[in-house]
Amino acid sequence: MRRRPFLLLLALTAAACAAPARPADEGAAGEQATAGDQPAPVLHAVASLPPLAWLVEQVGGERVAVTVLLPPGSSPHTFEPSPRQLAAFDEADLFVAVGHPDLAFEHRQVERLLRQRPDLAVVRLAGEDDVDAPGSDPHLWLDPRRMDEAAQRLAATLSRLDPRGAVLYRSRLAALRADLTALDRRLADRLGSAPRHRFFVQHPAWGPLAAAYGLDQVALEHEGKEPSPKLLVQRIEEGRAAGVTTIFVERGAAQRAARVFAAETGAEIVVLDPLAADWAAEMQRTADALARALGAVGSRQETRP
To answer: How does the average pLDDT of the chain come out, rounded?
Structure first.
């Protein structure tokens, strides 16, 4: 019987030592941990595209749950969100969008829905110059500098909506900006030093990236449609004259025109995914593929998925 106080003290001491410590950033945020020691999300964001969901995850971490509107395999130019998908806005605190007038499903349906939710915070990649220039390339997320600017606006918006998480958002933003700066420098060094600057694509999805690094994107398609026989012959002649080695196509897209181009020029068809959920990994892969196509020294040889 005399041993019981000692055994009780030993049990209490062991329990205290086993209690998990809360991470510093989560402790500062003052949120209770859920089962499994995972903090419950404080905010809910809706992202129009997978790369924008990636951006939210990088800045928001576990404090922000994110829903993506565009399903895998869908085109942002033809996609029509269902009522069930649009219902994600009912509980949303934030919408992250490209905001370009030529991104059809955002412009037609989502913008109309946003007028019904004037309280919903919105972060857009597009600026006033983009909105005022219909016909420009809407694939703004393929420019790391654009993503950097959007990340800063996103962190500021999250901090306003969730002041208790502001320290965490600033910390994650700093780490992300360092990564984006490193990627930007890598792209500038590798692509800027390449002996060629013209690359051929089936669909013109990489215009903002090309503009950022002084490249010339040549598309087989015209105004979103398959090239006419005359235009395809012209592109084949241009490719031969340029010594083309690669024709880039988007994952899941029809490759009929690209196959004809490749057969006539000897070019290799390389598939890239501008809508990849892991934006950073796909941008690294795109950099390698472009560097190889443009003849940069030291380019990796493997570019296929």
So the answer is: 84
